[in-house]
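Write out the 3D structure for:
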Amino acid sequence: MSPRTLLPRPSAIPPARRTLRAGCRLLAACALLAAAGCDYLGLQPVSQIEARKDSEGRAIGSACRQAGRALEDCYTFNPHMSKAAIFTGWKEMNDYMLQNSLTEVRPEVAPVLPAGRARSNAAPTGTSLASPPGKPAARATVYTTP
């Protein structure tokens, strides 16, 4: 017997099996292409990751300033972000708001702190938020534990 007779001919493989093999190859190629374009694998350059985190921190800082939140509150609500980036965004928005005479947009919902503490607008015990006539009431920030 010659070695040539031991190998099955391509036409001897059933068509269903050939289709299954071709489908598996196509599926593997598609999965490889999808993984190559995926940002969640961490295959980006470090400079690109740092630039994205910096721009996210600046956006958070500017949103905090527009909402009228103190810079320290912004740091507390976003501990995973760079304080320098948050400050830069907060300062840029502050300058923009002063230049264009814009007012703050008060948020309707109190944010939730990372540790699970909720922000309460109630006054601390023993203090009064009463303000003299003609002056807006002072804002007190109290953090409570549920």
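The radius of gyration is 30 Å.
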